[in-house]
Each structure stands twice: as structure tokens, then as C-alpha cells.
Amino acid sequence: METILIIDDEKSLLDLLTVVFKKEGYAVKSAQTAARGFEILAKEEADLVITDIKMPGADGMDILRYARENLPDLPVILITAYGSIAQAVEALKAGALDYVVKPFDVEELKIIVGRGLASRRLKQENILLKRDLKDRYSFEQMIGKSRPMQEIYILIEKVGSTDSTVLITGESGTGKEMAARAVHLQGARRDHPFVSINCAALPENLLESELFGHVRGSFTGAVSDKKGMFELAQRGTLFLDEVGEMSPWTQVKLLRALQERKVRRVGGADEIAVDVRIIAATNLDLKKRITEGKFREELFYRLNVISVDMPPLRKRVEDIPLLIAHFLQKYCDKMGKRPKRFTPDVVGLLESYSWPGNIRELENVIERIVAIEDRETVTVTCLPQEIVSPQKKRLETQELFAPGFSLTNHLDEMTKKYIQEALALTGGSLQKAAPLLGLSYRTIRYLIGKYDLNQVRKAEKRNGNGDRNPV
Fold it and tell me: Residue 394 contacts by C-beta under 8 Å, 6 or more apart in sequence?
């Protein structure tokens, strides 16, 4: 059901149009002020807006400008009792779908609304079609030119031509689901559903219901029969993300489904034949989980027919500039921001960072920079501290190992410094300084002679401190 938002300070007209368009089968939301209209547009979805131009405070032109800036595909129809050619031209130039003068013919308004909604549907269908074609016939969503990624592309192409079960491993944020989609799109099942479920996100009872479905009355809240993911993915691919987190009982049911190619809904008696390809993913060491008794060995071998190991970002550093460019364009376009560029030292820092969160962490960093920074040139000051700090430590280490560095001399200087501090603290007393340093009395006497520290001790003794044993 498509939703129409009607904004007019004249309550009688607002009520009339609400009744008219509800009878036409639309969901209708109404507002008597532009301010209320802004609130609805910010928090809820609407497929078309009908708004009066003249209202107290903000007016219909403000609504139109807000829609063009924030909801560019939203059709807006303007209504006014004070029509003029100049005003109509201004409204159409600003992006209004149409301009209607009171009193107007309701049937004519219905036609305009129908035309606007049909145009919106067509645009959305075209966007989805282009996106689908883009995803289906390329690796474009998987970005990288490094050797590890080239090897992944080759493996995915080979795996895609088979119907074998695939286990994708790798650290969190390395793009395991993207790889699973790529495998799906390379195979004969690409014209059928790709259904994804995160096994770690649901408790055991809900996960079982999501995977295998349930029948009405099988548990509290089961008010009707429901298909599970296996049925929804019929003739397509079922992607089991974080499969290592699955409970032992659900593992048993999954193993049986893989062996028999049949599922039984929760609370049901009938078995349902399923034809799906299984792709599983995990960031856990499943062999270790097996030895711990947390994962069934036979299920592991059922899933691990073909293994794809996604490389962490730190092992494909040369892909980082490509990923930066991709995410910059993505979020600048999404937020309506002007293109940004990173200075070479920023790129260098991003390349040298270890990226424990991998691609997902890099994407979050880029999104934050685009959202917060107004400058077109991004400098080091724009980066999170956790990225900048490790590089500072590396620079300090590089300075430490400058030409002419001698570990022996460095240790000698450190030893002298600690002895001097201990003597100062104890007033020159060797008996008191030795235990502070973890040394014997004989050793500290030897070191004072070696490093010629007698002058330090004599100065302390002149102040009335020190001990009776001469050096």
C-alpha cells in the first residue's frame, strides 16, 4: 500500500482529501502544519506529498525544498488559493510534480497523484534493475587488485560453476558474505534466491524456526504456518553466517537437512524436500571447536567441501587506496557531499595501520570522515587517534635506531642514570641504594667505580648523608 502525506492548515480540506485517498486504497498521513510535515518526512516513509503553499510559519515551498534535498525521488504536489503564473513556474522549477489552484477538481487531483506514483515506481524499478545487473555479472563489489584477492576471484569463478557446499573462513569484516554472494552469482542458481541468516544473532529456538519454519500452534506466538529459510531459498543459495556459533541441537538438525535434503518444520510431521546450495561462513577455528566439543566433526566435513579463506586487510595493503576511493565515492554520493581527497601522509597512515576490524573498520572510518569533515582535503588531524598513535610509536622507534646507535652505550647510560637516581634518593648511601636497584653492595661499588660516579656520592656525603663504607 502506497502512502500519501497531506499537509494543509485548513482542516476541512485535510479531512476531505484524507477520506478521498483512503477510498482510493492509499495509506494517508496528515499534518496541519509544515513543521509536523517535516517530522513525518524525517521519521516515516511517504510515497507522495500533497501540500498547501500558504501556511503559518514554514510553507509548502519549504516542504518542497526539503524533499528535493533529502528525498529527491519523492513527488510533491503543491496546492494554493493564490495562484499565479510566476508562482507556478517557480514551483515547477524547484522540482514540484504539479501545481494545483483552489478550488480544484478532485478527480483531476486523483489523476495527478496516480501519475506521480507510477513515475516513482518506474524510477525505483529501474534503480533496482541496474543494481541487480551490476551485482550479478561482475566482481565489482569485491574490490582489490592484490595477489590474495586475485586468487580469491579465480577460486570463486571455479567454485561458482559447481554446486558443492562452500565454507568461507576469515576474520570478522573481511567480506565473507560478499564472497558468498559472488559464488552464488557465478553459478547456475543465480536467477534464484540468495537467502542469508546470521546464526549468532538468534537464540536456539528462534534460529531453528527461522531455518526450518514452523506450523501454527507449535509454540506461543506461532499464529500461522511459516516457511523457513531452507524453503525460501528453494533452487537458490542459503548462506549460513557465523555457523560456528550454532547450538549442538541445531547442528544435528542442520546435518540431517544436508544429508537428507529434507526439512521438517518445528511442530510439524511432514518432511519437505529442499533443493538449495549451502554456503557457510565463520571467523572461528572450527577444528578447535571440534576438539572442545562445541562443533560436530561430521557437520564440519559436510560444510567444508570447498574452502575459501578470505585474507585480512593487513595482508592486502595495496588494495587500501582502491577501497578508500570506493568508500569515499559511496558516502559522498550518499550524503550529498562534494568529493574529498586524502593527502599522501593520510593514505600512508591508513596503509600502515593493522586494521583489526578489516574492511568493515576501514569503511566505518571513511564514513565518519565524510559525515563530520567539511574540508575537501582530508589531513592527519581528521583520523581517529588509534590509527595515528601506532605510527607515532614507529617513528619514535625509527629515531631510536638512528645511525651510530650502540646498544652497549645505551645500556651503560641507562645503568648510570638509575644508579644516580638511587643515590640521590638515599642521600648517597650504597647500603640503601643497592636493594633499590636489586644489586648487592659489592656490585654497586663496582659499578660506581666503572662509571666514575664517585663525584655524585661525594656530593651527597658533604650534605651529611651516605654510609661509612668508602668506595
Answer: 352
